[in-house]
Amino acid sequence: MCALVKPMEPVLSNQLLVDPNLVYQVKWDGIRILAKIENGNVLLHTRNGNVRSFIYPEIRDILTNKFAKQTLYLDGEMITINKGKADFFQVAKRDRMKTASKIQQYISKIPVSYIVFDILQYNDWITDKPLHERLSILHETIEPTDKIQVCPTTTDGESLFHYTKNQGWEGIVLKEKNGKYHLGVKHPTWKKIKHFQYVTATVLGVTLKSGSVYSLLLGKRERGEWIYIGRVSSGLSTEEKQILTIYSNSLSVSNPVTAIPAFKEEEIRWFSPNMQANIRFLEWTPDATLRNPVIESFLK
């Protein structure tokens, strides 16, 4: 097999563009997986080149049987559906499994589907072809099943945006019809819009690395107790880190939180609950913390 490639990435946007030169797809909340099919062999790998063929043997075997005599390179998302939406935490649990016996056990417990949204190679490389041609080739190549599907594409971005928001899905991706596939880079011919949530959280402390503030520890008040809801470093400016580092010693108090996870090789300083911040996040995790939090602003 040839060397593995890195996929194209969309850039984050907060603006829904309505344009006849764009098409729109669901942004599936799963594990990005590419499938390299060559000489009767199928290799599944992540965006960083980590092999996943043994993690998803049911998908690997279907692709092997369907495309034994073809050379293809597919790009898509491995997902598992739970209560009508893609469940990232379930598919991530499956993706972390190491032993063949456990993987076989969880094929039925955490079933996955491979949603293919692009094709990079069809015998020859076709990354220079416009997206609409690649999608046409993809639809002609893949016969959908419950395990392997082609991601639906629409020209009605507004309807897809509102539908995914109402369903509680992650978001949508806007793609230029005539855009090429730019290997290994984030490129504005693809733009992703996520359906974020927002919360006002209290800053209960900080973590430090090498003596400098690295992240904030967030909490909320419930039944008279402070509950830890996660840590955040994204959105924290260098100047804010410097200020917090300077004053963190004088602000330090005993731990106000009843239960927190262990932080490896980091110093923690707790504060009195006087500082609040507006936080953008994707969703609540199963352990009631914020997924992908970003600091939007501090409250004055």
Could you explain how this protein is built, in words?
The protein has helices at 57-66, 88-95, 100-109, 131-141, 157-167, 238-251, and strands at 9-12, 22-27, 31-38, 41-45, 72-79, 81-82, 85-86, 113-122, 124-125, 148-150, 171-176, 186-194, 197-209, 212-222, 225-232, 252-253, 267-281, 283-284, 290-291, 294-298. With 300 residues, the protein is of the alpha+beta class. It folds into 2 domains: 9-194, DNA ligase/mRNA capping enzyme (D-amino Acid Aminotransferase, Chain A, domain 1), CATH 3.30.470; 197-298, Nucleic acid-binding proteins (OB fold (Dihydrolipoamide Acetyltransferase, E2P), Beta Barrel), CATH 2.40.50.140. The strands form 5 sheets. Strands 3, 4, 5, 8, 9 and 10 form a 6-stranded mixed beta sheet that branches. Strand 8 (113-122) and strand 9 (124-125) form a beta hairpin. The chain starts with 8 loop residues before the first strand and ends with a strand. The model has no long low-confidence stretch (mean pLDDT 93).
Please tag this protein with its features.
6-stranded mixed β-sheet, globular, 20 strands, D-amino Acid Aminotransferase, Chain A, domain 1, 300 residues, alpha+beta, 6 helices
Oligomeric form = single chain
CATH topology value of the largest domain: D-amino Acid Aminotransferase, Chain A, domain 1
Radius of gyration: 22 Å
State the name of the first-level CATH class of the largest domain. Answer: Alpha Beta
Number of domains: 2
How many strands in all? Answer: 20
Shape: globular
**Estimated structural class:** alpha+beta
For the largest beta-sheet, the strand count, sense and barrel status come to: 6 strands, mixed
Question: What CATH architecture of the largest domain do you see?
Answer: 2-Layer Sandwich
Q: Please identify which CATH superfamily of the largest domain we are dealing with.
A: DNA ligase/mRNA capping enzyme
- Residue share in helix: 10-25%
Weakly predicted, low-confidence segments: none
* Number of discrete helical segments: 6
Report the β-strand fraction as a percent range: 35-45%
